[in-house]
Write a structure and sequence with these properties.
The complex is a heterodimer.
Chain A lengths: L4 E12 L5 H16 L8 E5 L5 H5 L1 H9 L5 E5 L5 H14 L5 E8 L17 H9 L3 H16 L3 H14 L14 H5 L3 E3 L2 E2 L8 E9 L1 H6 L5 E7 L30 H13 L8 E4 L4 H10 L8 H6 L16 H5 L3 H17 L12 E8 L3 E8 L1
Parallel strand pairs in A: 2-3, 2-4, 9-10
Antiparallel strand pairs in A: 1-7, 1-8, 4-7, 5-6, 8-11, 10-11
Chain B lengths: L4 E4 L15 E5 L5 E2 L17 E5 L3 E10 L16 E8 L4 E7 L13 E11 L3 E10 L8
Parallel strand pairs in B: 1-9, 7-9
Antiparallel strand pairs in B: 2-3, 2-4, 5-6, 5-8, 6-7, 8-9
Chain lengths: ~400, ~150
């Protein structure tokens, strides 16, 4: 049985700092996705919301919050959370319901209104919560982890701060004409290199901002799409894997890794396993991809992903970048949308936004940033506390 | 001089021996795997059904896996010194336990003085204080030349 589901419609609310409720952003994205699909809200049988944890109770029950805002229709509802991988959780719920025959057409929505500056844990004294503990006893923020990975990349693979900066330069060029991007300004190498250090060796322009934004998808069974008379972009795989014990790489928000003293390491590491599982499910490999949307929380992390999603061997990411292979016009453009470098992070919307970009690319509608002849694309992303997220779309 | 009592910022994470503090972890009596912070309920090795753990003091020394800095003041629940002074952070691998543990680098030692593979030892430092207490946490500190592991 085919595991494909159809992407009938996509929509976004532009990323930025708009000072409004996340609900309105989500509804705008949803209405755009419905319009793009040629469907009405009342046609939707399941609404799958991606939760936000910084907007009170309505954020924890995002599916119902959006359903109420769109007008109670009796649709089935789901709300899920997986940190940065939240969107993949919501997509996975919608897809599973469709593939199980429990519904024909679903609406997936993720939206956030984000605070300025560092993300911080929710309130109260909670020593048992690793996210609280790392901030309180060591002052360890998210960029701390980005800095550790970047320094490790320099020591192990000989990456330079110029290489990291070159990722930002590339992505800023990609996002120049993306109407949903928050930052649409060319950035030069010197701009990055002269920005302030945040988490050595990473500078301010190496690290993504936090943004408001929303993304939505209308997904359906392939039968429903055929009855609807369309030849849609398909979601061919959704990976939501957890790590395999022991994970010996330090991960947000932990203060320590698993121990490898008692148990041997798994064959492949967690980050490598995320897209690997998606490729397996789609019956495709990295060589079949026309483009990739990867989670560039930092510039250096984008280089790690090149290797972790199989675009090149370990240690070759800098060469792939320098040779222009991951730029528009290269062999495998990475983040043609502009990535987080141009968007900033709107947590529950981000994995959904990645699929919006793949859809526009595979339809040939990515004006000003089109990957010519794109046939298949992969997204990858990771949510803290062990959430893998990878989606493969094909035409 | 202060007569404030020194107490851990969070109980149960480290011993309070001033000269040779240790992080407190647990070791599974079934498969021998280590946990920090201490795991007390169920072993997290999926191949192990054990619920019996021994408390262990982890190795005081390890080697730098990677390092970075906090150049901006972290938000609450961190209690930053005013004015804020940037600090370095190291991920230190403990060989015997097979665990990498994060911690601030002590005494204003910056990233320029650090390198991957460098030997580090555990020390206790003030995190913040109030009217009655000085709250301590662990830091990593480059091992003085000539010092050796246990």
């Amino acid at each position: 049985m085919s595991k494909d589901v159809a992407v009938l419609g996509v929509g976004m609310h532009p990323w930025g700092k708009w000072g409004q409720s996340f609900i309105g952003y989500g509804v705008k994205a949803a209405k755009d996705a419905l319009k793009d699909a040629g469907l009405g809200w009342k046609d939707i049988q399941l609404v799958a919301g991606g939760d936000t944890i910084r907007n009170g109770y309505p954020g924890f029950v995002a599916g119902a919050t959006f359903a109420q805002a769109l007008g109670w229709s009796g649709a089935k509802v789901s709300s899920s959370y997986g940190a940065c991988a939240t969107g993949a959780q919501a997509i996975s719920v919608a897809r599973a319901n469709i593939l199980a025959g429990l519904c024909d057409v679903a609406l997936v929505i993720g939206a956030d209104a984000a605070p300025k500056g560092f993300f911080a844990p929710t309130g109260g004294r909670r020593p048992e919560d690793p996210d609280w503990l790392r901030f309180h006893v060591q002052g360890i923020t998210n960029p701390t982890y980005f800095g550790l990975y970047a320094r490790r990349r320099m020591d192990v693979h000989g990456a330079t701060q110029e290489d990291f900066a070159a990722v930002k330069v590339k992505n800023s060029k990609h996002g120049l004409h993306n109407p949903n991007a928050r930052y649409r300004k060319a950035v030069a190498l010197e701009d990055v290199m002269s920005s302030v250090l945040v988490a050595d060796p990473l500078r301010l322009l190496d690290i993504c901002a936090t943004s408001d934004g929303a993304a939505a998808l209308v997904v359906s069974s392939m039968d429903f799409a055929r009855r609807h008379g369309t030849d849609p972009v398909k979601i061919s795989a959704v990976s939501t894997v957890t790590p395999v014990y022991p994970n010996d790489i330090i991960e947000m928000p932990n203060l320590a890794t698993d121990s490898k003293a008692g148990v041997g390491l798994p064959e492949i590491g967690f980050k490598e396993s995320i897209a690997h599982r998606a490729y397996e499910e789609a019956g495709l490999g990295p060589e079949d991809m026309s483009l990739a949307e990867v989670y560039d929380l930092s510039t250096a992390l984008e280089l790690d992903w090149y290797e972790q999603i199989g675009l090149c061997a370990a240690g070759d990411a800098e060469k792939l970048l320098r040779d222009g292979e991951t730029s528009l016009g290269g062999r495998i453009p990475v983040n043609p949308s502009g990535g987080l470098a141009c968007f900033g992070e709107a947590v529950p919307a981000q994995a959904i936004a990645q699929v919006c970009e793949l859809t526009w690319q595979l339809r040939g509608q990515a004006e000003g940033r089109q990957v010519e002849g794109a046939k298949a694309g992969v997204t990858v992303n990771q949510g803290l506390f062990g959430h893998g997220s990878s989606v493969i779309c094909t035409v | 001089m202060t007569d404030k009592t020194h107490i851990p910022a969070v109980e149960g994470l480290f011993t309070m021996e001033p000269s040779e503090p240790r992080l407190i972890g647990t070791r599974c009596r079934g498969c021998g795997t280590y946990f920090f912070p201490a795991e007390q309920t169920f072993c997290r090795n999926p191949a192990c059904d054990q619920t019996d753990f021994e408390e262990v003091a982890l190795s005081r020394t390890g080697k730098v896996w990677s390092y970075t800095s906090a150049s901006y003041k972290p938000p609450a629940p961190f209690v930053a010194k005013e004015p804020f002074e940037p600090f370095a952070i190291a991920a230190v691998e403990l060989e015997k336990e097979g665990i990498t543990i994060l911690g601030q680098v002590a005494d204003g030692v910056g990233v320029d003085a650090l390198a991957t593979g460098m030997p580090m030892e555990l020390v206790l430092r003030e995190l913040y204080q109030d009217d009655e207490h000085v709250y301590l946490t662990w830091n990593w500190k480059p091992v003085a030349t000539g010092a050796t592991d246990e």
